[in-house]
TrEMBL record:
This is Ig-like domain-containing protein. Residues 14-101, 104-222 form the Ig-like domain. One of its GO terms (cellular component) is neuron projection membrane. Pfam families: Ig_3, V-set. It comes from Anopheles culicifacies. InterPro entries: Ig-like_dom, Ig-like_dom_sf, Ig-like_fold, Ig_sub, Ig_sub2, Ig_V-set, Zig-8. PROSITE patterns: IG_LIKE.
Length: 284
């Protein structure tokens, strides 16, 4: 009768492929894949565990969570057990474990990082432009670990569709409203409006497919010199700063009055104590 030595038993155990990447960074909304490769699995099962709440996400090819964003991808006959996370959110950031139900359990940890990109519109948040002139709003996003899709522009809650608003046969030079998007080191989108009119006044928002949006407010001024507009904007900024300074000064004054009242109260108590001492001394 043949017996299996400890060394032979260990040699028959499943084992992980440690050469796969185990630190993954994705942007919000972009599908993430955690790849777990298990050799010589035999009759054992592979499970994916979310470490922060010890929640079993998958076992074998079955999913054990009501969150349908999670599922395992395992082609038949493959050694790959890939956890797929659709539409990841920042809250999904954390440690995930690929486990094999050996005795004792074998596990391999993976770090998932979900980051939220922020769009930025260059320049001030309030734009002043003279009617019948041209305005350009530029929205930029630093590229994340993967491509960030594209950017849409809205005026208020309405999507800006240059081709739908004007004759499609017009060349881009003759269209009043155009949107240009470039994919380089940063994702850049430019909204250009020619011959602006009063109705162009409003809130403009650039909405990326995989990042937080950004907004500016455009003011179309009729019959006013641009220098005066800049002056008004500067005066508005100065007025706001003065208001903050005045409020701060008022708070300081209130604090000083409270301190003075407190000190006067202390002095009154000390005075009463000295008077009482004098009366006692005279009685003696």
């Amino acid at each position: 009768m043949m017996t299996t030595t400890t060394e032979e038993s260990a040699a028959l155990q499943p084992y992980f492929d440690f050469d796969v990447p185990r630190n993954l960074t994705v942007t919000v909304g972009q599908t993430g894949f955690l790849h777990c490769r298990v050799e010589r699995l035999g009759d054992k099962d592979v499970a994916w565990i979310r470490k922060r709440d010890i929640h079993i996400l998958t076992t074998g090819a079955s999913t054990y969570t009501s969150d349908q964003r999670f599922q395992v991808i395992h082609p038949e006959g493959s050694v790959n057990w890939t956890l797929q996370i659709k539409y990841p959110q920042v809250r999904d950031t954390g440690v995930y474990e690929c486990q094999i139900n050996t005795e004792p359990k074998m596990s391999l940890s993976y770090q998932l990082n979900v980051i939220e990109m922020q769009a930025r519109i260059l320049g001030p948040t309030d734009i002043f432009v003279k009617s019948d002139s041209e305005i350009t709003m530029t929205c930029v996003i630093q590229q994340g670990p993967h491509e960030l899709g594209t950017i849409f522009w809205y005026k208020g809650s309405k999507l800006i569709e240059p081709m739908a608003q004007e004759n499609e046969l017009l060349s881009s030079e003759n269209r009043r409203i155009t949107v240009e998007t470039d994919w380089t080191e940063v994702l850049t989108s430019r909204l250009k409006i020619k011959r602006v009119v009063q109705s162009d006044t409003g809130n403009y928002t650039c909405v990326p497919t995989m990042a937080k949006s950004a907004s500016v407010y455009a003011h179309v001024i009729t019959g006013e010199h641009p220098a005066a507009m800049q002056h008004n904007a500067a005066v508005s900024g100065v007025s706001q700063r003065l208001a903050v300074l005045q409020a701060t000064a008022c708070i300081i004054c209130l604090v000083e009055v409270a301190l003075i009242r407190h000190l006067l109260g202390k002095l009154r108590l000390i005075g009463r104590w000295w008077v009482a001492r004098l009366v006692v001394d005279r009685v003696r």
